[in-house]
Amino acid sequence: MTEQLLISVLFGILFLLIIIFRVLEPANLLLFNKPLYIHWYPLSKKLKLNQRQILVNEFPFYNRLSAKRKMYFEHRVKEFISNYQFIGNEIVITEQMQMLIAGTYVMLTFGMRNYLVRLFDKIIIYPSSYYSTVNQEYHKGEFNPKMKAVIFSWEDFLLGHATSNDNINLGLHEFSHVLHFHCLKSNDPSAIIFFDEFNEVIKYYTDQNLNNELQQKGYFRLYAYENQFEFLSVILEHFFETSRIFKTTHPELYKHIAVMINFKEKYLN
């Protein structure tokens, strides 16, 4: 077989695979409500030993993963740190900061195929709460689309990360805003599923009867009812921090969230 013929055959096979994929992916979405695949990394990136140890020490979620999925998680953490700039404002950026922030984001998006988004390109970190010129108030964190930035008070990020059962996690909260905005604009398979399930989730905010039921049970903190964006972020904080209580208290809503981010229950508490 000549070199030119071999190249033609390879291109033909590639073209056939693309056609098959374009048929199978929509069918899989329709039948199983999930992408055809999530993880595929031909050149998987590895963390340094001390970086991996941070994950072991700080993320029970990571420790519950199989060896193969730990490799996927580490690859995504490495990619996150490579793709987004970390900027310290009156604070020095450390490897621990990068690992905890990246790990939180990867945990939230682990069930989604396209996890790196272009809505932000930088992480800005302050030592503690900071004054925002946008609304002339002190903030603990925010997602600022105009600046393409996610901003954290490190003091409050650490507090939310260290306390795993109070349903307050600044990292999850702000990255949930990012994910929400991304999936409203994107048409990749994970975003389509997210958007479809979000339309079911938001009924618990907009439907007065469902909303009254949520408030009567008192599981979600009052800040959830500020607007639909805060509603989703607060719910996702609860989903990761007290998942068993969530599932028992609001089983149908829990199911929608699990499908929305394509999450396996065994990885949660």
Automatic annotation (TrEMBL):
Presence of the UniProt keyword Transmembrane helix in the record: yes
Keyword entries, A-Z: Membrane, Transmembrane, Transmembrane helix
Database matches in Pfam families: Peptidase_M90
InterPro entries: MtfA_fam, MtfA_N
Entry keyword annotation includes Phosphoprotein: no
Gene Ontology molecular function, alphabetical: aminopeptidase activity
Gene3D superfamilies membership: Glucose-regulated metallo-peptidase M90, N-terminal domain (1.10.472.150)
Gene Ontology CC: cytosol
Membrane spanning stretches: 6-24
Protein name, per record: Zinc-dependent peptidase
Higher taxonomy: Bacteria, Pseudomonadati, Bacteroidota, Flavobacteriia, Flavobacteriales
